[in-house]
Write a structure and sequence with these properties.
single chain, mainly beta, Porin, 13 strands, signal
């Protein structure tokens, strides 16, 4: 999970939000990944991935980060994290955006800067954000690049279901061309929204589907689904 990035998943709390999974809270997710069973070249893919996310607004914008860790029988086999900061001290729904991405297993450091436009329904049942950024990929053969990102969320049936996610498209030459793409839509069933369940029982069950092309050394378009659980603090 690259949670875009996600990324990402709950209630948007500000008029302007631009995180993969926007909420004024923290959450921990655990995903069982089926990718290892779908592609011969993915046999070594980790079966389990945990994600920790945090979103915190303040008077000058918001801060978001997430950390992914992959697990095998021998322990942690991979790690990836993103952290971003949005700055806005005006009323227009546009913010300045800076971001860092990096991790283990030959994942290059990436530094991004640009702008975000966000829209939310007046009652925050749905919304989206669009980001256009310059991207510097450290030690890449062609380090100067760009990235376009979209994020979205929809809360349906009085909050019982949440559909959210992100899509990233950027220039980075690889085995399948000059551009890379990844999207990770998620669907959650929020148990505490159902009658008879304690509203403080913040467990959600659901799934994520990683859609990617020319990403992490791939030479084809791939679909990797998961089943997952999430606890929101």
């Amino acid at each position: 999970m690259n949670r875009i990035k996600l990324h990402i998943l709950l209630t948007v709390c500000l008029l302007l939000t631009a995180t993969r999974f926007t909420t004024q809270a923290q959450n921990v997710q655990m995903h069982y990944d089926f990718g290892h069973a779908l592609y011969d070249s993915e046999r070594g893919r980790a079966h389990w991935t945990s994600t920790v996310e945090m979103f915190r607004p303040d008077a000058w914008g918001n801060t978001f980060f997430f950390v992914d860790m992959d697990y095998t029988n021998d322990g942690v086999s991979g790690a990836y994290w993103e952290i971003s900061r949005e700055l806005r001290w005006w009323k227009a729904p546009v913010a300045l955006h800076v971001e860092y991405n990096g991790g283990l297993n030959h994942i290059r450091n990436a530094y991004l800067a640009g702008a975000t436009y966000a829209w939310n329904h007046p009652n925050f049942t749905s919304g989206f954000a669009l980001m256009a950024m310059y991207k510097y990929i450290q030690r890449a053969p062609e380090p100067n690049s760009f990235q376009l990102t979209a994020t979205w969320y929809v809360h349906a049936a009085a909050g019982r279901f949440t559909f959210s996610g992100f899509a990233d498209w950027w220039r980075e030459p690889g085995r399948a061309g000059d551009f890379a793409f990844i999207s990770e839509p998620q669907l959650w069933v929020n148990l505490n929204r159902f009658p008879g369940i304690d509203p403080h029982f913040n467990l959600s069950l659901g799934s994520e589907v990683e859609l990617s092309n020319n990403f992490a050394g791939q030479d084809e378009f791939r679909v990797n689904p998961t089943i997952a659980a999430k606890w929101t603090f």
